[in-house]
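QA checklist item 7 of 12: single-chain prediction sanity check.
[x] sequence parsed
[x] length recorded as 155
[x] structure emitted
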Amino acid sequence: MDGTFDQLSPVRRLRGKYTSYSFDLKSATDRWPLGFMFELVRCMFGRSFASSAVNSTLGVNIFQVNFVKKFRPSEISFVTGQPLGYYASWALFAFSHHFLVWWCAERVRPGERFTDYAILGDDIIIADEAVAKEYELALQRLWWGSDILSKIPCL
């Protein structure tokens, strides 16, 4: 489960599991697909809310900055990932990350409530081999390759 407010609690719940798979997502908040977050929110709350919550806050903001080109203001926007400082950003990322794990678990263990995982930001431990493999495949599909993952050993 989630370790945002208590980093050790989800890890303690996994104590005693014999096999665990640890993943570190490289630059996840910079590269987590806006389209994935949009579709998840759209399915739950409708297109209008998804457009407001995801596209308006994360995807289509344009900022004018003076330091990019000398003497002429330039416009920049975020086309991937999530801009720092947006309150909705972290919540949408965390929610969609949990949802991805739940979806993977549902694919390999239909109808079972899956809790054998711990997430802290973009780091995750999954204490189920089949779910871990499905999670890795799902990430590869979302990013068109496996360069999003930094596998690290799990203690």
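[x] summary fact logged: The helical segments are 9-13, 28-31, 34-45, 47-59, 87-108, 129-143.
[ ] second reviewer sign-off
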